[in-house]
Amino acid sequence: NAGVTQTPKFQVLKTGQSMTLQCAQDMNHNSMYWYRQDPGMGLRLIYYSASEGTTDKGEVPNGYNVSRLNKREFSLRLESAAPSQTSVYFCASRNLRGVEEKLFFGSGTQLSVL
Amino acid sequence: QQQVKQSPQSLIVQKGGISIINCAYENTAFDYFPWYQQFPGKGPALLIAIRPDVSEKKEGRFTISFNKSAKQFSLHIMDSQPGDSATYFCAGRGEYSGGGADGLTFGKGTHLIIQP
To answer: For residue B79, what are the CA distances in angstroms to A44, A56, B14, B50, B84?
Structure first.
């Protein structure tokens, strides 16, 4: 009954530090996503993985890298964190039936870069 | 290029009133239009969705109205309750603007407050 699990829930970094956000889903979904949410900006897609072994850039990929480790896990890495990357990050996986698409989101990671 | 425009950015409605949130889209190839609801500290969750061959869909107090010719759709919440206070996102499903796979493009969200 876990769905999409993200870790950590909170993180504070100093400018220039690196970190990896972890995400795992237990629903056997092929597609997984990383979004960032900022006030007034909505949900912006950073990277996605349409299937195991593939990754593609979304709307705001600069400063991030991703790894689709296996079908369950999709991680997001900040190599050198910047204050502009202060945000709430959400991982999601997708259930698709024809055109009816349902995203399952994790509970988010609140990241502050000082 | 913003493919889904959502308004208003914030909305205050009295308990028992009707909440209305509007979205307009540009991509005529969109084939599915969901609404997501997000409570503070949580991830968004699918609330209701509609396909473009249908003009209206109703689930309980929530209704989507869809106008294909105007490229607009809206969410109506009837008899709004304090528990409906949340952020609502509309979306359209189609090919990502950079090419590649299909997926959802979200509006910027509406922060809804229902006053008791």
So the answer is: 31, 42, 9, 21, 10
